[in-house]
Amino acid sequence: MIPEKEEFPLKITIFNTDEVMAKTVRDEEHRIERRADIWYILQEVLLGSHVGTHVEFPYHHLKNGMSAADYPLERLMGDTVLLNFSHKKKDEEITRQEIVDTGVEIRSGDIVLIRTDMHKLWKTPQGHDRPVLSIEATRYLVQEIGIHCIGTDATGLEVRGRDDQPVHELLFAGNVAMIESLTNLDKLRQSRFEIIMLPLMIEGMDSCPVRVVALEDEAE
User: Fold this and answer.
1) Phi first, then psi: what are they for 50, rounded to 5°?
2) I need a surface site. Which of 71, 180, 195, 216 has the fewest CB within 10 A?
3) Same domain, 21 and 99
């Protein structure tokens, strides 16, 4: 990500460390005057909770839902499956039957990643021209199978511009977190693997930028 060049806020301000520390934990007696040639900085980061690859928690849509600080980490790592729907076009639905027809076994507790290849269009006029997950397919994954988390390399799984977000609401009602704007799903070689992501534990944070790491079995 590049500060001040993303769709959501991302700005970095640089301060001299000693100037900052002098205003916080150090009194005049312990203030240090460093040599002019020493590079020693602290930074203030203005960060939108949805900038870059990020995971959204139930609090994003539910006033009493879990936020970044209290969402269970065990639901954000572990067994993961990849569903390839990169042939789907703008606003075209991914249906329950199409998920079944992939032949990929989805188990209770799995994380489901949906490949659309939309990351290749990020920061272009077509960057949000994504396919969508049908309500029936969402219910199937959340209520019938019992997945822990869902993710996509698109900027979302809903029709953009609606006055509601029923897919988000179904996911969060089932305590299913959602990862948006993933990258490199097209580089994965297997349909089942493990992932790890660790959001910041900040109370009241509806979403959090994350690095998501996939662990594939080298033997396959």
Assistant:
1) -115, 20
2) 216
3) no
